[in-house]
Amino acid sequence: MISEILGHLLGLAVVRLFLGFFLGIAVLEAAYPGILPQPLLNVLSAPINVYLSWCYPIKSADGTKDLPSCAYRWPNGQGDTAKFLQGIENSPRWEKAFGSIYRIWSGTKPEVVLTRPEHLQPAFFDSDQHIKAVNNNSGYLLGELLGKCVGLISPPQWQSVRAVTQPPFLYPACVAHTDRIQEIVRSFFQELELDDTGSLARGLIHPAHDLKMLPFWVVCELFYGRLPWHLVQELKRLAPLRENLMKHAIRGGLARFSWSRYLPTQANRELKNFQSRWRQFNRDVVAQARRAEKPAPIAKMYDAVDRREISEDQLLQTLDEALFANLDVTTGGLSWNLVFLAAHPDCQRKLREEITEATGSGSLNKYLQSQSTYLQACILESSRMKPLAAFSVPQSAPSERVVGGFRIPARTDFIVDAYALNIRSPYWAPDNETYRPERFLDRKNVELRYSFWRFGFGPRQCMGKYAADAVIRTTLVYLLLQYNLSLMEEGDWTRDQESWITHPDFHLYCVKRGQKD
């Protein structure tokens, strides 16, 4: 009997030791992603993969086969590093391995990947009723930054927050700011030219680094009006702090888990510092705006907070989304235009001729607002060739869908593979991988609805789309009137490996017109 008791106790001790070991290595891998040897990580991930596959079964419409799926990997699954930072490489790799519709894991949440136009129609025909994934399926830290912003919340809160924050971004408001956006762009380049240590003084431009803050200051003025010097300086100090927090969130690991809030991590210290200063900055701006003869839009937004139409956190995170998160988005959208125009001198020449004609006829503002120009075609073609992110934000339909022959349960998140849709789709054949802006002069928006991913679909398209296009158009017009762009050397176009949005990471020649290249 004593031997049985001792054997039982020994067995419990072994089990506890075994569980303690795996818990320890799980926390270690979460804290330092990539530290575990691959075989050990496989052993750790395998039982979780089996459990998740059992929890979230997705069958073909006839019930005979399972939806192909990436194997879960502790702790992030395939999100966000594999989905965003490595998404360009993983997009064709996953489609080749699993087919045109398959599943990945963002943390422990399943996401069904759609790659074909015929997949999108049954999934997105009622996109205004879709439910955005909680915290973008990215976990605790991203939720603390953006979990309540207009882009990541669902009805009915979405309608309330959008109604309060959208007015500066409506088409008429952006049109009314056309002259002011031109002033900001002109002033921005004048400062670059006067900087003797900068790239432009040497006849070069780094499209992402040098133009990074240009969209930021335009959007800033749409919300806040013109800020005094001390508030501008505080905003400049907040930008790198916020950028670093996004890197923590995208890397995942410990930052995915809500219990990580209790740990003395650098991310938590930076989060506390940023949230406190961001709240105080906006309260200072509002106090000043309310004293102005013509209050900036931020004043009305805080009036809505005072009336409890939306919460202050919802407003602060939506401002954060528009300024900081979308800073990367608009910078990506702008910077690749320079690269493509530098690489295609014939297109650059054709666009410059169109711009010169519009300027000479005195109709520049009308030209900047037009959707049917070669300029707009160049912008669309650039965004087709270089989608801002490889995969879209996850969202789920309210009812079951049959997509690509599989029965997708209600409230299962979908994501769109932008590279598959924008480039590899037969819709763009036969010159899918060729930069040819003219293709957009022949197509109407209704034709592109499910074949081209840029700002999303339906009523939930990005509310900053008019402002983004205004900044990109105005910048390209100024650049091509003032400078000649060309590639420094042929070869692969490197990108910023730490940015969740696709940014070029190299210089171009940018020589003042009239000077020798």
Can you describe this structure?
By secondary structure, this protein is of the alpha+beta class. It folds into two domains: 31 residues; 481 residues, Orthogonal Bundle (Cytochrome p450), CATH 1.10.630. Helix content is 55%, strand content 8%. It contains 21 helices and eleven strands. It has a five-stranded mixed beta sheet. A three-stranded antiparallel beta sheet has the order 1-8-7. It has a three-stranded antiparallel beta sheet with strand order 5-11-10. A hairpin with a 2-residue loop joins β7 and β8. The longest helix is centred in the middle third of the chain and has 32 residues. The radius of gyration is 25 Å and the shape is globular. It starts with a helix and ends in a 5-residue tail after the last strand. The mean pLDDT is 92.
Which fold name corresponds to the CATH topology of the largest domain?
Cytochrome p450
The backbone outline, from C-alpha atoms, is: globular
What is the multimeric organization of the chains shown?
Answer: single chain
Strand order in space, largest sheet:
2-3-9-6-4
Question: Terminal Cα separation, in Å?
Answer: 93 Å
* Poorly predicted spans: none
The fourth-level CATH homologous superfamily of the largest domain is Cytochrome P450
Query: CATH top level of the largest domain?
Result: Mainly Alpha
How does the major sheet shape up?
Answer: 5 strands, mixed
Instruction: Count the E strands.
Output: 11
- What integer value in Å does the Rg equal? 25 Å
Organism: Aspergillus novofumigatus (strain IBT 16806)
Cofactor: heme
Binding site for heme: 462
Protein name: Cytochrome P450
